Amino acid sequence: MYSKEELLEELRTDLVGQKLFLFDSLDSTNACAKTLAEAGMDEGAVILTDFQTEGRGRLGRVWQSEPGKNLLFSCIFRPAVAKEQAGLLTFAVAISIARALEHTTKLSVECKWPNDLLIGGKKCCGILLENSFNKETLTYSVVGIGVNVNQTGFEESLRASVTSLAQETGNEIDRKKLFLAMMNELDAHYKAAGKGDFRTVLQEWNRRCTMFGKETHVSREGVAISGKAIGLSADGGLILETAQGKETVYAGDVTVIQ
Ligand code: BTN
Fold it and tell me: Does 28 contact ligand 1 (Cβ within 6 A)?
């Protein structure tokens, strides 16, 4: 693993990663980031680890990652945004990571609602946004990012839908360079997004999203909604044109019918 000093020496950001916490192993970088945020840690702080014993995925799932192969980190943000905009930070993070992945691999990276990045239709990155509110005010956001970088074996049930950068390029990827590229992109995009201006972010996210116009199923806790995905709502939900009219969904398992 690279050292904290090595990373800080090459970091050129104004905010993101300037406070950096590096661990060989943690339960979850999101859990650690939340503890630090509750204790008043500054925004821009990043918690990076080589392995998680209790990596968290969306919808209460587990995020698995082989030790020392991938990038697993969380950032603390304190965006000055209205409650309704709190979910939009995930799109700023998605396009930042997509740009860094593209720059590193030269492969094209797609966004899938709500927060997956895909290469060739397979997931290579998951993002987990955990917001904390005090009444109507957003006190902090923790954004966890898991990128499959150099892992090349995945369990049978995931093989058809999951990939890594090494698998797609056929080359081992320099995780340090990739991490620094991600820090730069996050730093650049948070400048406007952190003030509630998501215009550029949403334009780019919409351009990278290949779901629009396609039949899409969203299911959650046994309830399924199907329809044509037609766009994002102002607060980041997915708008589906269903047989009963337009419906906006905010979470769930998403399947796009190609
Ligand atoms: C998803 O389900 O797609 C979101 C996965 C997010 C995983 C990352 S890995 C780093 C950070 N810490 C966690 O416990 N989860 C996120």
Answer: yes
